[in-house]
User: Fold Exporters of the RND superfamily-like protein from Lentisphaera araneosa HTCC2155.
Amino acid sequence: MKLRLAGILLACALVAGAWFSVRQLKLDTSVNAIMGTDHRSRGTYEKMDEAFKERTVVLAICKIDQLFSEKGARQLFAISEKLKSLPELEDIRSLTHAARPVKRGNHFDIRKNIRLEVFLNLEEKTPEEWAELKDFICHYPMTRDLMVSADGQYTMVLARLKNSEIGLEEKILLWEKISESMKEFEEQGIEVSVLSEPVLSAEFFTLTKTFVAQVLLAGFILILIIICVSFKSLKILIWMLALELGGVFLCPLIFALNQYDLNVYTCILIPLVLSLQLTFLVHFFAVYQQAEQNSNNPWAYALKRVFRPSCIALLTSFIAFGSLMFSEVHILQVLGQLGVQYLLAVFVLSFAPFYFLSKSSKDLEKHSDWQEKEDYSHGLVRVLNRSKAVFYLGASILFLSAFMSFSKLETDMRAREFLTPESETRQSLELVNDHFGGLNIFQLKVVTKEKGGIQKYENVKYLHDLRNRAMAMPGVKNAYTYSQFYTTVHQLFLGDSLSHGNVFPPEESLFTYNLILNSQRFPFRDVLQNEDLTESLFILRTDDVRSHEFIKIAEDFIELSQENLPEGLEIVIPNGLQSILKSDQQILETQINSLGLSLFSMFVLLLVLWRSGKYALYAFLTAASALASLVLVMYLAEINLNSVTVMSGTILLGIVVDDAIHFLSYYRHSIEQGHSHQSALANCFHSKLKPMICTSLILSTCFFLFYFSPYPPMREFGLSGAITLLCGLVASCLLLPALLSLKQRD
Assistant:
């Protein structure tokens, strides 16, 4: 009675704590969370926001037929005005709402001869004038690839949020407002795509909510069916569902204690840890169900047989999650930290009731192991006796193929690959990449300690020459630098067309041009210089190339920038190449090393606990064969090697070895009871095959659910994980017994 009362009180406390914690829990769908494993793509968004003075930028990419005509100009003006009317947006910039410098008159004060006029006004023009204006704007350095595509087919409207610190609900509302305001233009045949952090967050939230509501419910039903078919016991089903429900209630408590929100990566933990909890329960109740027939205390019997190997399996899972804590990717550190705590909590929750139930019974556990005669009748034992050589050969081919395939895996993760091709945000990213000079941005700062030093002739000339050399680099689509303002003004006074102007002014003109630049608000001038003119930003744009190509461009550009550097100038890379290298190379290498260290740590752990190098080696080879199958799956499915897929390898390693641990523990115990090798294998298959198949199906179902995720990296994680777990089951059922039979006679 006291035990039941204590259980009820603890359950009430758990539910109350979970209810309080879940109200504080939020779903983080910000760019930092979504692109937590890709610093390069996340940096592109941050640099775009930095260009707008740390306000969140909103881009509306429009495809307007005959943009350079009276009708097209009026349509662009209407779109810009519609966005301007939204109370959340300000600082609208487009071809109809941004100005360029023009030379008018011959005033004594030369600064008054230069004034700003909009790029695309609504005045009537002849077809020849429209064609000339198109040629000018599509070549003008401060509009090409910024406000208009080089071919003139696409134009961009830029805005910024009045308040960048808005919550998720406000982001969703803003997305709905922008979408609604653009409908009238889409009905006119204008294609409008919106790209912005609030839109991205809102879209991810909607997709995630739909995924959780539909797919995870289907997964729960499938797992329920697997349990019912495996055990055919209502009592066991109720026990497992009750403990799983307790595991669900623990989740918000763990997140609240660590002060973390849910995101696309930490959401993985919930089904993953709950599935691991199910594996503990399946192994326990498989033995419990056998003991019910011939033991007077089945709780104690099952606990005695299962608890120790379950603890070993828990430790190997700790190693898998713990290795993530040493990753250089913050989101993976969080995943490892939460995973270790959550797994420990559900383990205690799962076995604590069994311990108290085993102690509450007055009857001592009286059950001898395997009193029946030796059993050679199991089909898998006969298969092993006939086909050991085939399994050895198959394993050798698997390891050799994986070794050869690993070097051929691509190592890359790019921003648009976080979304499906149907996503509005991905379509916008592809438009930017294909029509607006490339998706990726690399920048460096040119710094001088002298106030106004950036406007000295030798420094401006250096920037001009550096841009010319950068534009000649393979893969570079465009470059923006402070010197372009000088070539623009110089062309005004030469009277030539600005369209092809890249002539640097003579030194004697610089003083006059400085006066003009400092008195006029040129487009994007504040982006490329600071207030006291001691710093200038150099921006390089490339296609959405693969990581190693982008790194090569960045390295070559940095080396180029050091050549002919004037005295007093310094090159500073703000969160540049160092963070890029970490995100694309060093982080990946660190995670691969952590994966190898995890495998070695598991081997050492089993060696110490079992005091047997043979059994530890067999478990090691079984887990390694599953990793080898993962490499082959990734190679055949053309899945890139990146932080997400390496993370899946680490987690899968800790899971796959669990079946091997339970199988070997049962085998060793059978041998210690005096049974022969053949009898021990038969007993293992009779007692462990069903729970091994059940747990593998549950875990494979859990992983396969992620195949229906709206995020391609999670799809790859789910597909590769599900197949690898099934391969791990085959390895535990065939390769592991074959290894145990190495020196045994048939």
Summary: The longest strand covers residues 440-448. The mean pLDDT is 80. Residues 224 and 237 are 8 Å apart (CA to CA). The chain is about 65% helix and 10% strand.
